[in-house]
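Hey L., structure's done. Input below.
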Amino acid sequence: MVSQLKQRVKPLYRRGQRLLSRAFFSYSPTQIETALAKIGIRSGDALMVHSGFRPTSGFTGTPADVIEAMLRVLGPDGHLLMMSIPYRGSSQRYAESDPLFDVCRTPSAVGLISEIFRRRTGVVRSLSPLHPILAHGPLAAWLVADHDTALRSCGKGTPFERFLSLNGKLLFFDAPYSSMTFVHYVEDICRDRLPVALYDPEPMTIRVRDAAGGERAVRHLVFSAEARQRRHFTPIEAALRRDGWLVTARVGNTRLQCVAAQDVLACAVRLVDE
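Output:
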């Protein structure tokens, strides 16, 4: 009886939350643009976005409207990047499942905004089955090129390093700091000084299908179980907040956080040195 009552009440509760959010936290795409400018995002920036799209955020538009607002702020010379990871959980479990990663068809599993962005005209996707990146902008093709040839999918020579070279910024749009994939590039830079092996010793092979329909095998190293267990985002996040590098703002019931990729790297290296 109690379980049945909960099932009946739950939709009413959720509807009430949505109505309250619209009544007290309503905001428009124009207000997103204002908020992005407030936290330091400018025309011409390279911006890597991690996002959530909650029904209780108060936003009056669609996921596509969020993307359009970001593109307007970045302007024609800017670059918008998002992750389009095709799995939840560990990269090792995904690789062991013998998937076929289709760069054009395999959906993103890291949020509705990411998936809508993947389908947008003018967006290109890197051919890495473990950490595929979406990019839009004048240098989009260069940003995602040859990702499939990198043994370490988040390391040197990957889109993460190219994004860093553009003085990229990281934006968390209703997403936690712990969703930041760029931290894996930081780990790779510091891998020789970590207390455990960052990767398993042997790469795993994953089948991919490219934009032309051709299939081939890609070899990537996967993170070790020890590295996954000991990975903690809190110390870097706390240091970035303390030093004023992680800037936070709110629009409606949505939380925005922004930090420069160079600052994340510098902060992490300093913590390792200490």
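The beta strands are 46-51, 79-83, 100-102, 124-125, 133-136, 169-173, 204-209, 215-220, 247-251, 254-260. The chain has a mean pLDDT of 92.

-- N.
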